[in-house]
Amino acid sequence: MAPHEFVEEQALAGIRIAQAQWTKTDWPRRLARYHRDPQRVFSDWADTWTAPSFRDWNIEKFLPRIRSPVLAIQGEQDEYATMRQIEIIAEQVPGTQLLKLPQCGHSPHRDQEAAVVTAIKEFVARLQ
User: Fold this and answer.
1) What is the rounded distance in angstroms from the CA atom of residue 2 to the CA atom of residue 78?
2) What is the pLDDT at residue 110?
3) b/e for 72-106, b at 16 or more Cβ within 10 A?
4) What integer is the mean pLDDT of 64-88?
C-alpha cells in the first residue's frame, strides 16, 4: 500500500509541504498517539527523504526477486508518490495486481477503507 521503490520529486515536494505545515496542524498530536517522540519520528522521516545523499535511493533491482503474489495499492492523489511507484512493481513482478484508487491520498486504508478491504479479500480468495 502506497509503496516506494525510488525517490520522486512529487514525494520531496509533498514532504516539503508537510514540513511547512507540521507546527500549524494537529499532526504532532495525531502522531503522538502512535509514537513517544512524534517530533523525532517526523524529523527522521522528512530529513531522510530530503537529504541529498538519499536522492539516489532505489530498490527496483530487488523487485524481480519477488515470487509471491502482489496486490499493489496506490491513491491517485497520493501527496508523496505517483502511479509510477506501483506500475514499476507490475512491470517487474509477474502477476502483480494493481489497485489505483480515485479520491485517495497516501493512506488508502483510511481514505478508501471499504475499497481496500474488498480488494484484499478478493485478492486473498483468488490465492486459495
Assistant:
1) 8
2) 94
3) bbbbeebebbeeebbebbeebbeebbebebeebbb
4) 97
In the chain, % of residues over pLDDT 90: 98
Say how far apart CA 38 and CA 24 lie, in whole Å: 15
**Cα distances (angstroms) measured from residue 57 to each of 24, 32, 63, 111:** 30, 28, 14, 28
Q: How confident is the model at residue 128 (pLDDT cuts 50, 70, 90)?
A: confident
Question: What are the residue ranges spanned by the domains of the chain?
Answer: 1-128
CATH second-level architecture of 1-128?
3-Layer(aba) Sandwich (3.40)
